[in-house]
Amino acid sequence: MSGKIIENVSVSQCYQLSRKFDTHYQRDNFAPFMRNMLPFQRGKLAWTAIPSMQLRNFSKYQSSFVNRRTVHCNAAPSTAVVPNLDKVDFLKLQNGSDIRGVAVAGVEGEPLNLTEPVSEAIAAGFAAWLLEKKKADGSRRLSISVGHDSRISAKKLEDAISRGIVGAGLDVVQYGLASTPAMFNSTVTEDDAFLCPVDGSIMITASHLPYNRNGFKFFTNAGGLGKADIKNILERAADLYNKFTAEGLTSSKGKALASVKRVDYMNVYTSDLVKAVRKAAGNIEKPLEGFHIVVDAGNGAGGFFAAKVLEPLGAVTSGSQFLEPDGNIDY
């Protein structure tokens, strides 16, 4: 797997280390450039997933040498590789008006394609799309809420998405475990205490797909995004991704940690939902009294519905099952 530039090293140290371990060079090719190459200047190395590194940023004479031979070095390569991806790789993640991909390794024949860097780029693409859609003039910072279901890859993707949003200059509010309708609702709720309404929202979910999959749904106060919007975001993400460096990704983690806000929005959502049902029923306190409603939440994010919505409205929910979130379950 080829990688982008990943590490600054002292090439002279690399050369000396290679000599120590008897790494052999073709002296007939090397000799004409010895005067120009020693002492080496600090340069950037690109890892090609074999125990060799190709030198970059040399003079025109040194470059002609590099083009002819690979300089082998026993220095350990960095593990922080940003794999090269084309725009088509991003577009393959589109599933109608959603994004879907493999976020957990270990299933034969299903390679990872929804990685943290990819997710960070997609979030930055959504942020750029939102800034354009809202015609932001810089008078205020836009904000995006992020929530997720119970999948085991949810937290790492939530953090990656948050980094992408912060890096794009927007505020991010994490909700943690949430339902998809709640994420849309956060764009229309008016409650300053819970930083609402937000300008956009991302739900991390893959609905009924197996545990190793995950994906994203996007909302504004106009509703869910359409197919054309998702394609636009993925195209933006591909362009942004190809500008990523390992150093930049590491730096973005620190910036996001310092600026991410977290609120318990689900308490607001369930309370508002109960109030809305009561109002629609003619201001009756328990409009569902006498009803026996069984909930099967499939170990997803919807287990709250029995105790926090139906029971306050008067329903009996005994017999409900799979209310506890479990990200290892195939939905």
Automatic annotation (TrEMBL):
User: Which Pfam families does the record associate with it?
Assistant: PGM_PMM_I (PF02878)
Phosphoprotein found in the keyword field: yes
Positions of the Alpha-D-phosphohexomutase alpha/beta/alpha domain = 95-237
Q: Give GO terms for biological process.
A: glucose metabolic process
InterPro entries under this entry? Answer: A-D-PHexomutase_a/b/a-I, A-D-PHexomutase_a/b/a-I/II/III, Alpha-D-phosphohexomutase_SF, Phosphoglucosamine_mutase
Specify the protein name.
Answer: Phosphomannomutase/phosphoglucomutase isoform X1
* Catalysed reactions listed for this entry: O-phospho-L-seryl-[protein] + alpha-D-glucose 1-phosphate = alpha-D-glucose 1,6-bisphosphate + L-seryl-[protein]; alpha-D-glucose 1,6-bisphosphate + L-seryl-[protein] = O-phospho-L-seryl-[protein] + alpha-D-glucose 6-phosphate
PANTHER family attached here?
PHOSPHOGLUCOMUTASE (ALPHA-D-GLUCOSE-1,6-BISPHOSPHATE-DEPENDENT), PHOSPHOHEXOSE MUTASE
GO MF terms here are: phosphomannomutase activity
Q: Which UniProt keywords apply?
A: Carbohydrate metabolism, Glucose metabolism, Phosphoprotein
Q: Could you name the Gene Ontology cellular component terms for this entry? A: chloroplast stroma
Oligomer status and interactors:
Monomer.
Which cofactor does this sequence's record say it needs? Answer: Mg(2+)
Q: Which domain of life is it from?
A: Eukaryota
Family, per entry: Belongs to the phosphohexose mutase family.
Q: Which organism is it from?
A: Prunus yedoensis var. nudiflora
